[in-house]
Amino acid sequence: MRKLILLLLMLFNITYALEKYKEDECLKYKPFIVNIFVKQYGLDYPWWYNLGQLKTESNCKWYMFSYDGLGSIGPAQIVEKFHDAKFKQHGLTNWKVLPSEYFYAYYILMQESLDATNQLCYTGPTIQKKMWAWFQVYNTGPKGVVNSAITRAGICDHAIAKQNCIGKNICVYKTPNGCKQYRNSCDINFEYSVTIYKNGQRYKPQGNIISTWKFW
Question: What is the model's pTM?
């Protein structure tokens, strides 16, 4: 019995250590995120939501099979065929293998998404917009469901915009033999920001954090 208890304790400790390692996987990208995004958006920028986004996109795995069939690359799941030419114009010729270039490429896409986010989502006279909508634009594109839903709602409110979302079923698991799983684009997109917010909390620094950036 004693040996069994010791074995179970050993298995528990190993499992706990592995889970903790997986949870901390995203932290190795923190220096890149902080260096780029804080430099661009200010010292009060809540960078932990970007780590939450990487966790949501790929569990922070660099090489990960993409179930959408688009060949997405890296922690932010960037689609090469859509963006490679643009990155090369910025001098990012090795973005697929160099983290320093990869995360600047990710920043470029995030800035494009911020610019494209619905004007109703401004939270002040500067560039700042509600982050839930910004991240959802990254996920769906400027012509995706979130911007049109916000326009119909007449307000940049997550719950009200979701009620006004008109989506369609899209393939989320594509194989050579066809699509194995479909989901509604509204459900996917509006769950995306919720998951990012939850994942971001694990990387948020302790203490009283004051930021002019608003997530919701």
Answer: 0.84
